[in-house]
Amino acid sequence: MTLEIVDFDRLECRFVDHRWGFVEERAVDIERHWEERRRANPALYDGSVLLACRVERAIGEDGARILRMAFFKTPFSSFLAWRDFGWPDEAVYNCFSMPAARARDGAYLLGEMGPSHSFAGQLYFPCGTPDPSDVVSGGRVDLAGSLVRELAEETGLAASEAHASAIWTAIFDRQHVACVKKLDFDAPSHALLARVKDFIATESAPELADAHMVSSLTALSDPRLPAFMVAYLSRALAGADEISLGAS
Fold first, then answer.
1. What does the longest C-alpha to C-alpha distance in the chain come to?
2. Predicted confidence (pLDDT) at residue 157 exceeds the cutoff of 80
3. pLDDT tens, 160-171?
4. Distance between CA atoms of residues 9 and 166, nearest Å
5. How far is CA 218 from the centre of its chain?
6. Distance between CA atoms of 129 and 123, rounded to whole angstroms?
7. Are 176 and 98 in contact (CB under 8 A)?
8. pLDDT number for residue 123
9. Cα angle 23, 28, 30; round to 5
10. Residue ranges of the domains in the chain?
């Protein structure tokens, strides 16, 4: 699947019961893989996460562009094996939300994943795979709430401090569906970065190893940036070349 970026007016996400054949068919492989990953990174935890078994684009009666997703619960070890085995079940998707926190001068905040993360060292907007705590009243999966929580847990920033875009930008990259909402903070990049670095330094077990600001297209060659992050930032930063990765 070619990487694609699409804007949506809203997300409609539901929790459903789903029997995932991959878990049953590859149970021995999944357990062996988890043991190997745990030996390499003992900080990994086999909690429950939410993956999507259905992803649909729709137009609402009001003309709104809608992204509809149906989520089911599975152990993190199953998700990790599915991902690391090369997505053997292409009817399942890793859908998650991310805040594109932008400073007043146009720089975007990136988190460097800490050693306990399954993507340790990579650069992302603060984010996490949805989990059962994101299932709210009526069986709705609250990706907006997940975004707010992950931003606070990883950076100490409150989404309520920022002006949130009305639009969701979804990046479709094979089995990844990253749902990004831009948050504009009324603070210069150096001040925003200092706040996040101070927060990381005071945490006993920080989720991030470091934080960076980026508003330069030349910085997007950094190998720690996944393809979907490069795609989003390339569009967001088109024509900008003021601040390099890691600038404070």
1. 52
2. yes
3. 999 999 999 999
4. 7
5. 23
6. 15
7. no
8. 94
9. 55
10. 4-236
Q: Residue 119 is encoded by which pair of tokens?
A: 């993507």
| Cβ atoms of residues 87 and 52 within 8 Å | no
Distance CA 90, CA 179 (A): 19
Rounded Cα distance between 211 and 199, Å, is: 10
From CA 229, how far away is CA 169, in angstroms rounded?
Answer: 12
Tokens of 113: 């994943």
- 217 with 247: CB under 8 angstroms? no
Concatenate the DSSP letters of all residues of 127-157 into one string: -----GGGEEGGGEE-HHHHHHHHHHHHH--
CA 157, CA 167: separation in Å to the nearest integer?
Answer: 20
β-pair type (4-8, 94-102): unpaired
> By the 8 A CB rule, do 26 and 44 touch?
no
> Closest by alpha carbon to 20, among 72, 69, 86, 56?
72
Token pair listed for 138 = 């009526």
At what angle are helices 143-155 and 189-202 packed, to 10 degrees? 80
Q: Per the confidence metrics, is the pTM higher than 0.85?
A: yes
User: Would you give the end-to-end CA distance of the chain in angstroms?
Assistant: 37
For residue 126, the tally of other CB atoms under 10 A from its CB is: 25
Distance CA 146, CA 174 (A): 22
Residue 132 vs residues 139, 169, 220: alpha-carbon distances, Å = 10, 23, 33
4-236 under CATH 3.40.50.720, yes or no: no
Q: Tens digits of per-residue pLDDT, 38-58?
A: 999 888 899 999 999 999 999
